[in-house]
Write a structure and sequence with these properties.
Blueprint: E1 3-4, H1 6-18, E2 29-33, H2 38-42, E3 58-59, E4 76-78, E5 83-84, E6 93-101, E7 109-121, E8 128-129, E9 135-137
Antiparallel strand pairs: 1-7, 2-3, 2-6, 4-9, 5-8, 6-7
């Protein structure tokens, strides 16, 4: 994930350079979008998020056991454990993007990215990010 939302950018800049408090979220939630729209996601809109068919965001608690230490030289971290979504009980359709939010529904968007390869999720499929497959960059 290489794009920080406006919310995250403003919060970090305010915290680092203006001493405005910015509290890290207690939980992160990984979500999926059908039609990827960086404009919608940048603005914090979840209008392209999947819905129905058993889809729900997956909680992924922040911590040293969940995310790697920053990789020196390119400023990124990756998931240390598999991230598995619920089994699809109906077709979800094309999944082309991913995001991290601080809410199990709605909430504040933190990061977003287009998937390197879109996946058509059919009934009984399980969408999974294997260990090391979800990278978060600070650039």
């Amino acid at each position: 994930m290489s794009a920080m939302s406006n919310y995250m950018e403003s919060g970090l800049i305010g915290h680092l350079f203006r001493t405005v408090p910015f509290t890290a979220p207690a939980s992160n939630y990984i979500g999926l979008v059908g039609t990827y729209s960086s404009g919608n996601l940048e603005s914090g809109l979840f209008s392209d998020e999947l819905s129905g068919g058993g889809y729900s965001r997956v909680p992924y608690i922040p911590g040293t056991g969940q995310w790697s230490a920053p990789v020196e030289g390119d400023g990124h971290s990756y998931n240390l454990k598999e991230i598995q979504f619920p089994r699809a009980v109906a077709d979800w359709g094309n999944v082309s993007g991913v995001f991290i939010s601080d809410g199990s529904s709605a909430g504040n968007l933190l990061y977003y990215a287009v998937l390197s390869t879109a996946k058509d999720v059919k009934v009984n499929d399980t969408f999974t990010f294997q260990t090391g497959d979800l990278d978060v960059y600070l650039r």
